[in-house]
């Protein structure tokens, strides 16, 4: 699925705000999220909340599955589908 590059950029910004080890300019949007940041249940929920706040969407519990959060384009596609 092709998603808007502006949306991808905004998702990367949220990732860099939530995950300390991610930095704008060095974070690769095409690489899996879990290979670039340490994800645990607490920071994952912080990330979901940050996405909801930034994009004014609600991500329901049934969407909180790994397949939706493997990469930035997948996350951006999820957000776009909820708008």
Could you please describe the fold and organization of this structure?
With 83 residues, this protein is an all-alpha fold. The protein has one domain: Non-ribosomal Peptide Synthetase Peptidyl Carrier Protein, Chain A (Orthogonal Bundle), CATH 1.10.1200.10. It contains three helices and no strands. The protein has helices spanning 5-18, 41-55, 72-82. α1 (5-18) crosses α3 (72-82). The mean pLDDT is 90.
Biggest sheet record: none
Could you say what the CATH topology is called? Answer: Non-ribosomal Peptide Synthetase Peptidyl Carrier Protein, Chain A
The total count of helices amounts to 3
Order of helices and strands: HHH
* Number of DSSP E strands: 0
Distance between the termini: 16 Å
Rounded Rg: 11 Å
Structural class: mainly alpha
Total number of domains? 1
| CATH class label | Mainly Alpha
Name the CATH superfamily assignment: ACP-like
Shape: globular
Low-confidence stretches: none
Please give the share of residues in helix: 40-55%
The CATH architecture would be Orthogonal Bundle
Hey, roughly how much beta strand do the residues contain? Answer: under 5%
- Give the mean pLDDT: 90
């Amino acid at each position: 699925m092709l998603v808007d590059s502006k949306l991808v950029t905004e998702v990367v910004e949220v990732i860099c705000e939530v995950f300390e080890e991610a930095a704008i300019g060095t974070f690769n949007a095409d690489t899996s999220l879990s290979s670039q940041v340490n994800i645990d249940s607490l920071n994952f929920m912080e990330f979901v909340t940050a996405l909801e706040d930034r994009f004014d969407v609600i991500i329901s519990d049934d969407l909180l599955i790994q397949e939706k959060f493997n990469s930035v384009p997948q996350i951006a596609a999820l957000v776009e589908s909820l708008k």
